[in-house]
Structure formats: C-alpha cells, structure tokens
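Posted in: Protein Modeling Q&A

I'm a second-year student putting together a small comparison for a lab meeting, and my supervisor asked me to include a predicted structure for FRIGIDA-like protein. I've never done this before, so apologies if this is the wrong subforum. The sequence is pasted below exactly as I got it from our records. If anyone can share the structure token output, I'd also love a short note on what stands out.
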Amino acid sequence: MATARIEVAIASIPEKKESLRRALEALRSHLSASSPSFSVPEWKDLDAHISSVEASIRLRFQALLAKEAAQPSSSPSDSKEKASNEWQPHANPEPEAVPRPQLTSLCINMDGKGLVSFIAQNRKDLGAIRSELNPALRSAPDPAKLVLDAMDGFFSSPPPPPKGDKKGDKDADALATRRTCINLLERIPVIGPEIGPSVRDQAKKLAAEWKGKVTDGGRENGLEAMGLLQLLVSYGLASEFKVDELLDLLILVSRRKQAVDLCKSLGLTENVPDLIERLNNKGRQLDAVKFVYAFNLVEKYPPVPLLKAYIKEIKKAAQDVRNKGNNSSEAENVATSKELGALRSVIKAVEEYKLESQYPREFLEKQVAKLEKRKEEKKRTVAAAAAASNSKIQKQQHPNKRPRPSATTSNAITGQTLPPGITKQPQFGLADPSPHMGLAGAYGFASSGSLYNNASISGFRSPPRSYLYSSESLAGTGGFYDRPVNYTGYPGTRVPPPYNSSLYP
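Accepted answer (user: helix_wrangler)
Welcome! Here is the predicted structure, written out as tokens:
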C-alpha cells in the first residue's frame, strides 16, 4: 500500500537527518582545512527547517489516513489496513471558513494575547472559530511568531471573571486558556509557516521554561505536558530534549487521545517498547495497551495480561485508599468509584480490540454489578446513620421539650369532665369550638342562669362549669357574672336593641 510506504519513509527521517548532520560536520572539517573562507550553514538552522517540515508531513499523513479510513474498502488488504488503524482518534480535516473580522484583525496586528483572550471568551462558539483559525493565521505577517507570543498566558493566572459572574471559575478559565494555546500550537504544522532562527530560539527558551514548570514538584498535569510536547513538535525542538525526557512527558499524557500522534511526530517509534515497559511499571497498563495496538506489538505484549494487571493494580490502590481513610464511608465511596471506573474502562477496551474470546466481559460485568450493589447499600446505611445522628442532636439541644398535649391531657389539666352521654365534637367543622362560645363559657366563669348549663346557643355548645376559680374568689365581682343576659338589648341594661323589633322579633 502507498500509505505503508509513506509511513516507512516518515519513520526513517530521524536516521536520515542524523546522517545528514554527520555529513555536514565532515564537510565543515574538510573545508576548514582546504578553504577556510568558504562558509557552511549551521546545523541548528538546517535542523530547525527539517524538523518543521517533518512535523508538517506527519500531520498531513495522519489526515490522509483519516480520509482513507472513512472511505469504504474495496479489497481484503484495504480492510486489514483499515482495521489496524481503527484505534486512532483521527478526525476528518476541519473545513475552513471565512474568518470573522475580529480574528483577522488580531492576526494581522500580531496580537497573540488578544487572540487567546478572544477565543477563550467565545468558547461557546468554538466549533465555528476552529474552522476560521487557519485562514486567519495565514493572514498574519509571521504566523509562527504570533502563535509563540500567544503562549505567554499558558502558565499565567487566568484573567478576572467577567462582570456579572458570581465568583468566576478560575480553574475553568485557566483550562480554557491552556486548551486554546494547545489548539494554536497544533495549527503551525498544518499551515506550515516559515520559522526563522530568532523565532526558533524564542521557542527553545520557552520550552526550557515550561519543562521546569511541568516537572517541578512531581506534578502530573497532562495538559501542561501536552502543551510542552506540542511546542516541541510544532517548532521542531525534539532534538533539544533527551529521549528519556520525552518518554517521561509522554507518560504524563498517555491517557489523552493525542498521545500516539505526538509519539510518532517526535520520532519515538523505535522507543515505544521502552515506553510500554515504563507504563506497565507505573500501573498504566490500560494506556500501554493503546500503544501496543498502535504500533503492532500485540505478539510481543499480549493485551489481556496487561488488562488483568491493570485491574489488579487498581484494586490495590483502592484498598490503600480504604486503609488510609480508616475504612470510613467517604474512603469507601472513593475506592469503589475508582474500581468501577477501571472495570468500565477495561470493558470498553475489550470491546474496542475484540478481545471477548480471550477475556469474557460477563465476568467483568458481574464485578461491576457487585460493586454497584455494595455502593448503594453503603449509601443507604450512611443515610440511616445520619438521620439517627440528627435526631439525637435535636434531643440534646431541646431536652425539656414536651410533646403537644392531646384532648384527654388538656381535660385532665383543667379538671373538666364531660357529662355522661356528651362527647366533645367539633361544631360546624371547627376542631375547637371554645373561641366561639358565650361570654361566660369562653372564659370558664360560672353563671347562675340555666342557659349556660350545657345548653346550645345558636348551634354552639357551652362547656361545663369551670372549677378553676371558687365561688368565694368571685365574691367581689358585684354579681356581674350572675346577671341574666337580655337578648333584646345589652346585658344587664334596659337599652333597647339597635335594630327595629318588628324586623328582628
């Protein structure tokens, strides 16, 4: 296949470049003795140009493979090659659109910081902006320098939140800025601008600065490492780093879909076995399987043992979480989630690489169901314990709080008893009719008239005589409460009623 020959040729570029370097050094030593006045170009200038061209060829070749994989195959050999490339996360080449005036203006004016800020602030419209970036960058006087100037915000603090934002998610802003910078770096090999020596030196200094920020403190931030690797690919700086350093950076980004393409663009195809061993030793066997299939190393590194080792490693890490957390509910939840995530990832890999015959997924699915059941039971136990704890706290805060008295309790307190045959029932749908009773009955005072002796007045039943106050205690009341009520006027007076007696007999 033509694509196979191209891939072999691309893989041989580093070896040919090294041969060219040796030939140039030999020529330099020969001319220095025979023709001192004859000048030979510096190797670093040639290396920068060759590396830039190499990166562009690699990316264009990946785009070609993506197009070929999208087309229906017409022969068994084509089908075999397509199947071997199905693992790759290639996307069809992005269509180019006429850029909006803001993008074009920022690129023409070489405003790198403004370009990053504009893209980050309009990330909701990122799909359209991505299709406009390549034409906009081509309009810049020096696209390579423009993108390099835009990298100043990669490690800097995010801009203040826009007005009206409550808090402003600084972490989200920082991530958006870094993704924008990486996206701009990926454009350089695609548009293939000329990279001058001064720009390359600037990129080299920036790479050295980023290298220290990525590795200091042992942080494993995949986005930072991917930005550094893409910077090396875009500006042809891979030769400035040792192979071990590049492999360590690749391990940090091994989970990302661009990891395999970065490995090829950096010219590390021959070092993939070493990379797989390192991933295996660091408990990243799932990522190692990805490189195994990408570089056709299945016979040397069988994938199923790697997947089983990965599950074993994750279970060990989950148990460490439980032990460090003293088997608390929080530690159990974190550990279970870690195991569930690993099992689901392995199930996905088994499906993707067609390994069901070697590693039945039913066994993995049973483990997932068991963990989910345990997680749900633990959740219910924690909820019940929390409810019991809240109830205990409330009792401690209000130790003397009495329950609401019932009707029987109220009668026992007041000393009132209902006569035989009379039950306390709500009148006219009212649960407690006492507020609507007569003047004497409402206040529990005694009356001499038989009208209040459990008789009904206008549908309301008077309560029985109250014994809270004795008759002696009411001796000084002047007999006001013993006077009969005259319903033709006001109580105890001869004042006529305010209404006409013929209308109200």
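A couple of things worth pointing out for your meeting: Strands lie at 456-457, 460-461. The first helix runs from residue 2 to 11.
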